[in-house]
């Protein structure tokens, strides 16, 4: 009782969450901690890289318009880059910038040998084609992995830049030592930069240049009937959800011991009228049955930034290798 | 009884098959007939195209080495092209041709404005990189859909050349009026030119530039445990198998009324010691439960050639459109 009272006096959400989880048998996948480990590893690699006489890796973000969420995302990415030892800069363009002006800017960066990674923060304004902009980035500098060539390389498991969130999900599964070979995976959501790349990486052959993970993968989406979704998830060893639907995954849909990766980021109001960020999973209830589970926030979110740094260092190394 | 005796006197395999099927309630998907319908439609389209003053579409095959199966496949494709009104030619190169010599030949065809479609018959000899050769073909002339850019376009549902066998499977499902929206599909086999493109087309959104088919898709493969495969197939409305495993799909694995598309081509010996071509499905037994089923031969096989003709006409039209 004394311990409990003490805990109540320091009401840290994560503390409370961990306490609940350990009593329930679920193992929290602490994305924040894992992302910090990865960033530490990358920092060490960057030091080693520079000790070999190479310049500091360099990441440039292009931010078009004043979308507050985009501004925040870019700020977080650039801060992480700086902290890790990557030269970073944000090119801010007004909302009125034309597509060809953006593409001109990208071409300038493509040709700039001091730049390793280029990212265009999405969404771009409506008058700009997202696809044209993504395809304008040199595939070798495409640290977001959105260029059509890199999507093709991913589809046939050639070495490529895997979109950072998808790569983050895979890394969480790997570092949590959750087996995938011959296991049933359900991916909820088929977006081209999250659900699809995850499905492509998880179902494919481990012997490929970009190794797959040999799982049996089911891709579910808006047209999967709820009762069918439930059938699939109940047999799944791993459930990955990236739908933006609050409480899509409930406890009675989860096989005991399954690993749950929640990519959803949903802004809701609590009963007390307070804003709160939640995922797609009914977290408290699912913890009772899951073997591993990611919290939201603090799960997949921090991994996206870490894997972007991973891709940037990779771009820097590839550029030197290709020059040789 | 008299009718039965009469039937015995004209022992046509297809006749016998159809008779069995109609008594069992399964509807045979006659790929040969459907492919002939498609080829007839393409012939009409080619006539209309030429009536507008355009030249005849032109397809060139590159055949390296003396592989008898490859020779036969190329022969069939070129014959179909000729029959349909497509100019066709096979460039035969010796087995000793180097990769760069093959790529030089491809480049010449890329630049030849009288050529619409180029296909390199696979497999190429071991000393040649299949990937380099596929990527050397101008994506606009890549009627096999194997270029990395076209794989990327397929992955994100942009208009592209879909690999012919995958396109043939989709067309068989469409023309048999088998619904896909929200239905469970199992794809057995994850090859990059058959299983994967089929899965990409079937799971994705119908509102895309290259429309998807809105099914819930499970990709199974060598590491899917047999008992799990069976669980998935039993719940499937459509099963597509492209594994090369004889009798992989048995009657007790199939939901009554399901649609079965058999891409397998396996050479076996009958009990009487005669060679026979069969698919991946235990055809006779599965007919008892399936709603629709493709035979082997005469199912998917003929569709591959028809859809290659479709892609060649499409290439011809695109080339003119891109010149305008």
Automatic annotation (TrEMBL), chains A, B:
One of the Pfam families matching this protein, by short name: THF_DHG_CYH
GO cellular component, one term: mitochondrion
Any one GO biological process: tetrahydrofolate interconversion
UniProt KW keywords: Hydrolase, Multifunctional enzyme, One-carbon metabolism, Oxidoreductase
GO molecular-function terms, A-Z: methenyltetrahydrofolate cyclohydrolase activity; methylenetetrahydrofolate dehydrogenase (NAD+) activity; methylenetetrahydrofolate dehydrogenase (NADP+) activity
Catalytic activity, as annotated: (6R)-5,10-methenyltetrahydrofolate + H2O = (6R)-10-formyltetrahydrofolate + H(+)
Subunit structure of this chain's protein: Homodimer.
Protein name stated in the entry: methenyltetrahydrofolate cyclohydrolase
